[in-house]
Amino acid sequence: MNLDIASLLSQYRCGALTPLALVEALLPSLEAPDEHRVWISRLPADTLRDYARALAGRSPDDLPLYGIPFAIKDNIDLAGLPTTAGCREYAYTPERHAFVVQRLIDAGAIPLGKTNLDQFATGLNGTRSPWGACRNAFDPAYIAGGSSSGSAVAVALGLASFALGTDTAGSGRVPAAFNNIVGHKPSLGWLSATGLVPACRSLDTLSVFALTAEDAEAVLTVAAAFDAADPFSRPVAGHGFDFGSAPAFRVGIPRANQLNFFGNAETERLFGEAVARIQSLGGQCVELDLQPFLDTARLLYEGPWVAERHAAIRDFFDTHPEAPLPVIREIIGGARRWSATDAYAYGYRLQAAKRQCDGLLAALDCVLMPTAGTLYPIAEMEADPLRLNANLGYYTNFMNLLDYAATALPAGFQKDGLPFGVTLFARRDQDGPLLRLAARMQRAAGVTAGRGPLPEAWSPPRLPGGQVRVAVVGAHLSGLPLNGQLTERGARRVAATRTAAKYRFYALPDGKRPGLIQVAEGGAAIACEVWEMPLAQFGSFVAGIPAPLGIGKLELEDGSQVNGFICEGLAVAGARDITGFGGWRAWLAARESGG
Fold first, then answer.
1. Averaged over 485-514, what is the pLDDT?
2. Where in the sequence is the domain holding 329, given as residue range(s)?
3. How many CA atoms lie within 13 A of 595 on its CB side?
4. Per-residue confidence (pLDDT) for residue 595, from 0 to 100
5. Is the domain of 431 the same as that of 540?
6. Number of Cα atoms under 13 Å in the Cβ half of residue 443
7. Does residue 461 lie within any of the structural domains?
8. Rg (alpha carbons) of the chain, rounded to whole number
9. Are 318 and 441 found together in one domain?
10. What is the number of domains present in the chain?
């Protein structure tokens, strides 16, 4: 059974499936021997049936995640099951769901259980668990990635439609790459941390694993909401220019001598193919100096942020010193060597690094890079856990420190059948464009999703854009005298098109501006450009438009309506009708030639 969101919703709408029937179909797999060590705990079958029955009489048209099954990393609260954070001695049973879990259930989603993880979300490999090393969905001899290992494998194996993870240093991205699924690390503060056992509270974000980027956006539109109880929570912000849907966009590619595949020629080949793929989609590739980002990454484990991991579980860690696994005890125990003075000093270093890295991204829409350079067998990881784990974070450790959004997505298979993934990242609040570009790249790659076929494309609910589109017909056109009023407000041209054939066009008496008038008959299509600008800038733009011009609704030739320049009818008395020229540029050219 295909568990992608669009397929399930389609079957629910036509009556071919019910949530209860889905639960019954999933139970044999959920109750089978857990050979991949996906789960720490699962809800009883009767509880799953109760969740499904609660949807009776409801509709997928009213609940965006109606009957969609999901898994939850076991450092996120699900009422009725213990939250262990990967440590039996730490476990507690919450009385209420985490904020995000509650939102998903309220939207119709069905929780299945709690998934395996690197203990206290400390690690990128998935082997650091008392429940055993989580095993890769494609070859159980290989690591699944971590720390959100079980969540990723649950989706890849077709046990859940999506899963919640967390991400501090790559835990929501590396497991996605190793299991051929999508992993989205949202902008910091978008997903509430109420009900989360944190790793580094100032850096953490819950993350989303899904079969496709479209599914991830559908989940994110539900999960992302302001939570007053979480002091780090903030409202979802508009993303601005939607480079993910644009025919052309600017993408940074790390310099060749800064790429590191740790001796794996196959992943190097696959990354080259991913670069060619993004170029075929309109990506204008620009070489990016990755060194400042790599330097920032070292601050995470070589600086005092490890003390934040200790702060998250200090009471337990200090009173139960033998409970954590030895490697976890070594990492978190290292917090004691850092002072408050060190924390401030490194905070200043991070602020300087962010200024530099943000500057390098200013001319780019996004960056493409590997999610991880290579993939290790479990035996190798357990023999050299610190060094190999550090290798896994080469491309991921800087992201949360710098407050960026990122989407990991499948990018092909090595000759040995193991998956490879790439990551798109951008400055914060660019989640929507990242997911849409990831969807295009996933389709272009044409690989499977998890262990199953690639689901058909669909259009999920969209994250808010925070943009306003404005059609211009005169002096605001590209290269003309007033175009700077658009560009200085961060506007970008998204289309050169024409209006619907229902307008007359006039050269106003001052000779500098045209006037566009809608007519009942005798109209024509007029050349125009559509620009997109941040909503916050729109008011000042409109306020600066002098009479007799103004902004109203303008119909384009495809039938859509956008904001656009219109003119008061009385103002065209005595003005020259230039409709026959078809546009302002053509009129200017004719006037200059004496026409």
1. 93
2. 7-445
3. 11
4. 58
5. no
6. 13
7. no
8. 27
9. yes
10. 2
Instruction: Judge if 372 and 416 occupy the same domain.
Output: yes
Residue 396 CA to residue 86 CA, distance in Å, equals: 22
Q: Do residue 471 and residue 534 come from a single domain?
A: yes
| Token reading at 363 | 């001319």
Across the beta sheet with 561-567, the strand order is 492-498, 527-534, 467-472, 561-567, 549-555
Active site residue 147: yes
453 lies in a domain?
no
Which of 397, 422, 193 lies closest to 303, judged by CA? Answer: 397
Cis peptide before 147 (omega within 30 of 0): yes
- CATH number of the domain to which 98 belongs: 3.90.1300.10
Residue type at position 349:
R
CA dihedral sign of residues 287, 293, 295, 301: negative
Asked if 100 contacts 207 with a C-beta cutoff of 8 angstroms, the reply is: no
Residues ≥6 apart with Cβ < 8 Å to 411 = 270, 271, 273, 274, 277, 420, 421, 422, 441, 445, 447
The structure tokens listed for 476 are: 């605001």
Percent of the residues in the chain that have a pLDDT greater than 70, as a whole number? 100
Amino acid at 157: L
> What confidence score (pLDDT) does residue 414 get?
98
The catalytic position among 161, 171, 187, 233 is: 171
pLDDT in tens, 195-214: 999 999 999 999 999 999 99
Residues, the chain: 595
Residue with the two structure tokens 């790793």: 199
Task: Give the dihedral sign, CA 474/477/479/482.
Answer: positive
Q: Give 476-492 pLDDT, tens digit per residue.
A: 999 999 999 999 998 98
**Whether residue 171 lies in the annotated active site:** yes
**Does 400 lie in the same domain as 305?**
yes
| Closest to 4 (Cα-Cα) out of 214, 183, 161, 163 | 161
DSSP code, position 401: T
Q: What is the mean pLDDT of residues 35-40?
A: 98
Catalytic residue among 73, 161, 185, 192: 73
Residues 73 and 171 in one domain: yes
Flag whether 458 is in a domain: no
Backbone angles phi, psi at 517, to 5 degrees: -125, 130
Dump strand ranges (E) for 365-475.
366-370, 404-413, 419-427, 467-472
Alpha-carbon span 425 to 181, nearest angstrom:
16
451 within a domain of the structure (yes/no): no
DSSP 16: S
CA angle centred on 75, ends 239 and 176, rounded to 5°: 55
Q: CATH number of the domain that 521 lies in?
A: 3.10.490.10
Catalytic entry in 147, 161, 187, 207: 147
Per-residue pLDDT at 411 exceeds 80? yes
Examine the fold and report which residue of 395, 412, 445 is the final residue of a domain before the chain moves on. Answer: 445
* 527 and 412 fall within a common domain: no
Decide which of 387, 414, 445 is a domain's last residue. 445
Angle at alpha carbon of residue 502, lines to 500 and 506, rounded to 5°: 105
Q: Are residues 545 and 397 in the same domain?
A: no
